[in-house]
Design a protein that fits this description.
The protein is α/β, with parallel strands linked by helices and about 220 residues long. The chain has a domain at about 5-95 and about 160-220: P-loop containing nucleotide triphosphate hydrolases (Rossmann fold). It has helices at about 45-50, 75-85, 100-110, 115-125, 145-155, 175-190, 200-205, and strands at about 5-15, 15-30, 35-40, 60-65, 70, 85-90, 160-165, 195, 210-215, 215-220. β4 (about 60-65) and β5 form a beta hairpin. α3 runs parallel beside α5 and α4 (about 115-125) packs across α5. The radius of gyration is 17 Å and the shape is globular. The protein starts with a strand and ends with a strand. Bound molecules: adenosine-5'-triphosphate and magnesium ion (MG).
Length: about 220
């Protein structure tokens, strides 16, 4: 699926002050393209991903996924569209606390009524080096382990679009490299349109294209 932003704007109001975070973003991402987004802390990268996912509304502008415009959709329509097409790896993981690692990943498959949820979830976790942590709850996992569960949950459903916010930010170099190798293998094999937010220049360079978010604008790097 392609992703197109047309003059997307977003501000936050904090008391008297208005923070203008996105000042009219225009970009076209082709189906299956793997794009990294870099930019300083606070530049609006996570805000942009939330808007792309339809989790947050832009103040103005349009977000088109293929020919579908997300802007006029109701919350219900957005939720359904997201469930069917988009996976997100959040910066803060957002795992479900009362479900084990395995159950967190299984749930993603079960929502979409996919078969063999347990086997597929187990395999996805094993691929990310978590075969020995299947029955642990998020509170019993390290930050990097939670991050890998979140990646497994996002990838296991083979979404059309993958939005990932610093997916290896909490991993040591060696584990991060291994996890991102699996990540890139899967997105390339399944031609998943991917937007990867990262602070790592070397990771950004592994993507087909890099965009820098700076002063509320997106520029080709
Ligand atoms: N709900 C909100 N209310 C007010 N301000 C917000 C809100 N969400 C984000 N901001 C502000 O918008 C700016 C961009 O935030 P965002 O989280 O998108 O940055 P980021 O580029 O992802 O940063 P980081 O690299 O640290 O994750 C920040 O200055 C932040 O304080
Ligand atoms: Mg962020």
């Amino acid at each position: 699926m392609s992703l197109v932003l047309k003059d997307v704007r977003k501000s936050f109001h904090q008391g008297e002050t208005e923070i203008e975070v996105l000042k009219g973003l225009n970009v076209q991402i082709e189906p299956g393209q793997v794009v990294s987004i870099i930019g300083q802390s606070g530049s609006g990268k996570s805000t942009l991903l939330s808007i792309l996912a339809g989790l947050e509304r832009a103040d103005a502008g349009d977000i088109l996924v293929d020919t579908v415009n997300l802007t006029p959709m109701s919350e219900q329509q957005l939720t359904l569209f997201r469930a069917q097409n988009i996976s997100i790896v959040f910066q803060q993981y957002h795992l479900i606390a009362h479900l084990t690692a395995l159950e967190n990943v299984m749930l993603a498959l079960e929502i979409l009524k996919m078969e063999n949820a347990k086997e597929r979830a187990g395999e996805a976790l094993k691929e990310l080096g978590l075969g020995h942590r299947l029955d642990h709850f998020p509170s019993q996992l390290s930050g990097g382990e939670c991050q890998r569960v979140a990646i497994a949950r996002a990838l296991v459903v083979k979404p059309k679009i993958l939005l990932a916010d610093e997916p290896s930010g909490n991993l040591d170099t060696h584990t991060g490299d291994k996890v991102m190798e699996v990540f890139f293998d899967i997105v390339k094999k399944h031609k998943i349109t991917t937007v990867l937010v990262t602070h790592s220049e070397s990771l950004a360079q592994k993507c087909q294209r890099t965009l820098r978010l700076e002063e509320g604008q997106l520029r080709e790097q």
